[in-house]
Specification:
The structure holds two protein chains of two kinds. By secondary structure, chain A is mainly alpha-helical. Chain A has a single domain, classed as ABC transporter involved in vitamin B12 uptake, BtuC. Chain A contains 15 helices and four strands. The N terminus and C terminus of chain A are likely disordered. Chain B starts with 8 loop residues before the first strand and ends with a helix. Chain B has a six-stranded mixed beta sheet with strand order 6-9-10-3-11-12, sandwiched between helices. Chain B has a six-stranded mixed beta sheet with strand order 18-19-20-15-21-22, sandwiched between helices. The longest helix of chain B is centred in the middle third of the chain and has 16 residues. By secondary structure, chain B is α/β, with parallel strands linked by helices. The chains are: A mainly alpha, B alpha/beta. Chain A: Keywords: Cell membrane, Membrane, Transmembrane, Transmembrane helix.
Chain lengths: ~325, ~500
Amino acid sequence: MNSAVPDNKPIARSRASFDLKTWGPFIALLALALLGVLINPAFLGLDNLSNMLTRSAFIGIIAIGATFVITAGGLDLSVGSMAAFIAGVMIIFMNSLVEQFGPGLTTILLGIGASLLLGLCAGFINGMVTTKGKIEAFIVTLGTMGIYRSLVTYLADGGTLSLDWGVRDIYRPVYYGSLMGIPIPVLVFLLVAVVGYILLNHTRFGRYCFAIGSNEKVAEYSAIHVDRIKTMTYMLQGVCVALATIIYVPRLGSASGATGVLWELEAIAAVIIGGTVLKGGHGRIWGTVVGAIMLTMIGNILNLTDAISNYLNGTVQGIIIIVAVYLQRASWRKSAP
Amino acid sequence: MSMPDQPLLAARRISRWFGENQVLFDIDLSLKPGEVHALLGENGAGKSTLVRILAGYLSPSDGDVCLADEVRHYRSSGDAEADGVVMIHQELALAEQLSVEENIFLGRELRRGPFLDRRAMRERCRAALAELETRVDPRARVKDLSTSDQQMVEIAKAITRDVRVLIMDEPTASLTEHEVEVLFALIGRLRQRGVAILYISHKLREIERIADRVTVLRDGRLVDSGPMAGRSKEELARLMVGREINDMYPERTELARDAPVVLEARDMVVPGAVKRASFSLRRGEVLGFGGVVGAGRTALIEALLGLRPRSQGQVLRNGQPVALRHLRDAARQRIAYLTEDRKGKGLVLNMGLRPNFTLLNLRAYCRPLIDRRREEQAFQEAIERFDIRLRTQAATAAELSGGNQQKLLLAKVMSIDPEIVIINEPTRGIDVGTKHQIYHFVRELTDAGCSVILISSEMAELIGLSHRVAVMCAGVLTGVLEGEQINEHEIMQYASGIKGVGVDEQRRA
């Protein structure tokens, strides 16, 4: 740390920069939406909007879990592979249950239960190895990322795992259905966001995440069970991945080695765009929600226009991520003399 | 070359604002070659801001920095170093993963052609370390060194430069007595070489010994400046605080003859730090812990609290054996611990003040969600009780001055309503006024029936506050001094291992 920094801080606290930090992602989202409308009025269509939100739900739910992990100073690169693995196991499990219970609600509920349990366990493993083994989260989750990915490829024997057609028909509404006109994935996304917000901002667990992410030593000297809290963030992340998988499986009814590729990076991108600090210590759930929607919106807008090729989706996303983070940093140091 | 009597480096009517907050008002200061100039003031008086301006880390809002009568506009510390103005930091600013030698020459590596001239660097590095009489290996990694060795490396880094003005911000805060002597000898030699030295310290005794000239700041204003000769410690202390301080150490609480033992540690062994230590603490007592830095005092206490592993030993609370495996267990036993490293372990610097205050005892405000109103209310009460002064609307703990950070930390630690308070170096880097408050706070605690363990490297503090003093030397608790025995001479003898190894066992036998 540069020793000159602390003294400069008071200036950086002016109201304007504080507001920019809080509202920055929302303003960016509005600007992007405005751009979408200008490019193609169909953007504002109810179908388009609900379609977009539905698709942002996967990354969004995973990213909410990632917000906790990152806020507490960790990182989870394994979420994409974990989603694929959970999807694979869930499909195999449900297919095998069909013989016993038939393609009914029981089968699906058991599948969902297994998926949540699996997510919880996978997160627990990530957390325990990182904290008890004292290995950097980056390395541990890089390892588990490879493991889950290869496991699902192995289970699918290099091909695709398909869900039983009977189960598929009953399970379908979880992705395609809606309640009071709102698609179910969007409802789940909203619910996870609200719970996440309360957990992060209004409970001890959330406060401890901030403290641990800022300075693990201080947390330890404040009688906080640092390892336990950190492991819990990974478990929460696992549950979020399982939830995302549960609504993802009925969409295609299949899983393969190519499922969920690069989801981890999209989730991290959503978290960072939302204003959570990658080094930890500061996290914002609503920012993450906005970040996830923005990432999907970019693809959506590119679909609606011919001006930029759809193949450049990644380029535009990349630019937006960098610009978003630059603006946040700039507002930190803006008013230095 | 400038004339001997001309100032080498001078501040001319320097002012500095942070936002709307003015922290320096028209300060004049001149450093002459071959002179040690002491800068005094309470925490938050503006000393650090002033020296950062002189060393190029900050720019003045108004006024000039002059080198040999020429106005200089330093835009970075590098500019100032090019002029031979070098600052030794209070907070160590070393690259932890690099070796001592790489750190010393960081940014100005010696080269032969395009390659590093390692041999020449090692030679000069060894010479500098030899001058400091330290046994630090130039090839050792900085992160493996003790704090005091790191401080010596920081000093070595400064003197290997072509230094004309040396600024030292609390250089002795983490040094052992011997190292302080070596440093003073070095300052003497630098003075003879014509280096101008600006020396910041809270330790008036040091200043009395080495300063030629002294300047006192209070609330950002210069209140006194002149030769040290003819100024007394007491006078300087009064000038710093702005009021008379008579009863620096309050009378000790009378200890009841049958005061029960509230905490006992038996045969504690901490691998690599404590070889053997047993002690007991009675109700209403202040038990001091003396010894040099690295004698194992902190290791012993932290092992007792469950903050680090111990290989042997038993802890008894009110006569009952207890297993403290985590600081949470200690908190449940109503034992509070105030760490010596308030920035590294005590406070989350980039967090707000209220969350910092409640972090230790957050569950008291949860039902099950955090009740912000009750939290805020408790925080306001703490501000009142611990006299935390919020000069501005400080948003994070980093913005508080050292003394106020310490009070906030104290408030945080006291939030569990402890019966036993363990305080580690409570007055390191803290001004006289706040020290005074902390001493009186210790007295209030013992009056209320609490017990206190005080780890301190300041002899006067141990002698002034403790009922008994336990002294450690190289991982062994060499003795527990009482009554008349508590004096500087005795403590030194036990601390250096001349007296009393094994006294403890004999007493119990």
